[in-house]
Design brief:
Layout lengths: L1 H15 L7 H6 L10 E5 L7 E13 L2 E11 L7 E8 L8 H15 L4 E7 L3 H9 L3 E12 L2 E11 L2
Parallel strand pairs: 4-5
Antiparallel strand pairs: 1-2, 2-3, 3-4, 5-7, 6-7
Length: 168
């Protein structure tokens, strides 16, 4: 029920721009629920400080009780030969992982990519992030390459896993 309701909330926010609290079913179902029951997703278009066209970038933010707890950003390059590809990055606050927020953000980002006729979605993830790797695989992403010992986290080398999902 929570996942279905959160998907409905995400849809309501993205398409109407109104806060989730205005959705009648949310008012009824959450009257006596704890604050962590709901999360909202809204989109923000703004420059990311890299060479992108104005319509080639999008950020979606997840909020719980007015606090930002996650975000996904999508970037389509301006280079004509690469405009069929978009890269995304995602981050969720630790205490809010495993609640469906990451999946909802990813689904919204992928839907935006499809509207822009993106053919290939790409992302990178630390090889040590098993939870994220499992989510990306469930969502249809496949490993395209691995850059060995690419990062160093707390003194330990970690591989960079490059993943891809074809949208066409």
């Amino acid at each position: 029920m929570v996942v279905l309701l959160n998907a409905l909330i995400a849809f309501w926010l993205v398409w109407t721009g109104q806060p989730a609290t205005q959705l009648p079913v949310v008012k009824a179902l959450t009257r006596n629920q704890p604050p962590h029951f709901l999360f909202s997703i809204y989109g923000v278009e703004r420059p990311l400080g890299i060479a992108l066209s104005p319509d080639g970038q999008r950020i979606y933010v997840a909020e719980v009780g007015g606090r930002v707890v996650g975000q996904v950003d999508v970037r389509i390059p301006t280079f004509e030969k690469a405009r069929h590809v978009a890269n995304l990055g995602i981050a969720i606050v630790g205490a809010f992982r495993g609640l469906g927020i990451g999946r909802a953000l990813m689904e919204r980002a992928l839907a935006w990519m499809k509207l822009r006729r993106v053919e290939k979605a790409t992302l990178e993830v630390f090889a040590s992030n098993e939870r994220a790797l499992a989510l990306y695989r469930k969502m249809g992403f496949e490993v395209e390459a691995v850059r060995k010992r690419h990062y160093k986290i707390r003194g330990e080398y970690v591989d960079d896993v490059m993943m891809v999902k074809w949208l066409t």
